[in-house]
């Protein structure tokens, strides 16, 4: 095992020498410094695992050393050493970031015990960070959050097609995160690091969309005062994301098809074409097959775009992902609006969020959470902070209709929803007492803790 390295800071040479010998016998590596300035110089060139620092020293006292060490990013636990009667100063040091303090005179065992406690804390912190990273990796993929089977299948399909130049059509309702899927395709491929260019085909007037996509030369039309590269050229080597492709006018669909077939673009007013290496990903909330039937979308372009299709499930079909999404969005929204500390979500609030049908999908959920964070006070996001917070939201049935019009008859999903509802009610009834809640639910305390973590109800 790696030996822990300790820095001992004290103006008394005898005490430094005694502590150094004692800690070396206990298996530590020890360096010493006669004051705060010397210690800061040593910390600038060496990373220590733990620091023992006297409070009363000439020139720079221990409290000032603590402040400067923390401001310089020193992360090692700092244990303050203080004479009997100066405990108030030691407590103040702990409030400012010290790990612990020990009063002089002290016995050898006292120092060792404090250091062992610090070691255990650091070990647990490291394990916790590792577990969080593993959980985050398990529950998310390139910014997409969820572990519902439909989402896991989506992640697998993204991995399969990411490295290919194949055009991909992303389909899903409004607010499901189609651009996130497009970015996941980009970042999972060898094109990561190259440009990712996104354009909403329905947000740009038809008269301007052609120039935006393909560019123009100076003087080609009124207002063209200089040559301009289009989005295809800007995305060269990377990915061009055409959102709301179903909104593209028929006149431009022909030109887009030619670019996809020839891998070259011609700026408006230019006499020659330019080769481009662009991976095209498109997305739509419309039924493009129906648009083709109605004559509003070219069939040949549809086939060219739909070489590989990715379907994003609506939020109502992956209710079991809601706790993860809520937990993630609360942190993200709180950081965005500057809300500190991040409030925890009350069980009743989560139950009500899970009972809603979410026609606006993840975008609607994000808006609701941000509004709730603005309205809520204290360290808890309560149900009353939600829209119509005083009125219950009722889910008509666990067997809700899925996107294809069939009933969702998943027993696993129904069991998860029922479990979360019962756990929430038990916690509310016991005022958050987990031991009593476990007895009411007739499960072990360990099982309850596991389920709280699994469902994001902590």
Automatic annotation (TrEMBL):
Matching SUPFAM superfamilies: CheY-like, Homeodomain-like, P-loop containing nucleoside triphosphate hydrolases
Domain Response regulatory: 5-119
Gene Ontology terms, MF aspect: ATP binding; sequence-specific DNA binding
Example GO biological process: regulation of DNA-templated transcription
4-aspartylphosphate: residues carrying this PTM: 54
Lineage: superkingdom: Bacteria
Name the record gives this protein: Two component, sigma54 specific, transcriptional regulator, Fis family
Organism name: Trichlorobacter thiogenes
């Amino acid at each position: 095992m790696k030996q822990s390295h300790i820095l001992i800071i004290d103006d008394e040479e005898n005490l430094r020498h005694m502590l150094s010998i004692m800690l070396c016998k206990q298996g530590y590596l020890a360096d010493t410094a006669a004051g705060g300035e010397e210690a800061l110089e040593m910390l600038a060139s060496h990373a220590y695992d733990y620091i023992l620092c006297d409070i009363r020293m000439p020139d720079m006292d221990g409290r000032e050393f603590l402040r400067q060490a923390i401001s310089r990013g020193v992360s090692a636990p700092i244990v303050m050493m203080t004479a009997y009667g100066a405990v108030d100063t030691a407590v103040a040091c702990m409030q400012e970031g010290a790990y612990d303090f020990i009063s002089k005179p002290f016995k050898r065992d006292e120092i060792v015990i404090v250091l062992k406690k610090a070691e255990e804390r650091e070990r647990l912190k490291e394990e916790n960070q590792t577990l969080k990273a593993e959980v985050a990796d398990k529950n998310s993929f390139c910014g997409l959050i969820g572990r519902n089977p439909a989402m896991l299948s989506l992640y697998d399909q993204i991995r399969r097609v990411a490295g290919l130049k194949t055009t991909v059509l992303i389909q899903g309702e409004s607010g499901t995160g189609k651009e996130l899927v497009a970015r996941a395709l980009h970042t999972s491929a060898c094109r990561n690091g190259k440009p990712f260019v996104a354009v909403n085909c329905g947000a740009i007037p038809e008269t301007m969309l052609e120039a935006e996509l393909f560019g123009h030369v100076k003087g080609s039309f009124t207002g063209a005062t200089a040559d301009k590269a289009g989005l295809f050229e800007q995305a060269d080597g990377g990915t061009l994301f055409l959102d709301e492709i179903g909104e593209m006018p028929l006149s431009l669909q022909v030109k887009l098809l030619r670019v996809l077939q020839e891998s070259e673009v011609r700026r408006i007013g230019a006499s020659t074409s330019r080769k481009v290496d662009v991976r095209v990903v498109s997305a739509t909330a419309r039924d493009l097959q129906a648009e083709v039937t109605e004559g509003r979308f070219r069939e040949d372009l549809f086939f060219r775009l739909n070489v590989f299709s990715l379907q994003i499930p609506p939020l109502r079909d992956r209710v079991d992902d809601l706790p993860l999404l809520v937990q993630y969005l609360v942190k993200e929204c709180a950081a965005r609006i500057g809300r500190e500390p991040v409030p925890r979500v009350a069980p009743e609030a989560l139950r009500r969020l899970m009972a809603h049908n979410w026609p606006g999908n993840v975008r609607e959920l994000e808006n609701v959470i941000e509004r709730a964070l603005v309205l809520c006070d204290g360290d808890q996001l309560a149900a009353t902070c939600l829209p119509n917070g005083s009125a219950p939201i009722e889910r008509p049935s666990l067997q809700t209709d899925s996107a294809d019009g069939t009933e969702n008859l998943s027993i696993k999903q129904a069991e998860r929803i029922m479990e979360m509802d019962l756990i929430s009610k038990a916690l509310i009834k016991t005022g958050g007492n987990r031991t009593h809640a476990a007895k009411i639910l007739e499960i072990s305390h360990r099982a309850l803790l596991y389920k709280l973590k699994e469902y994001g109800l902590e």
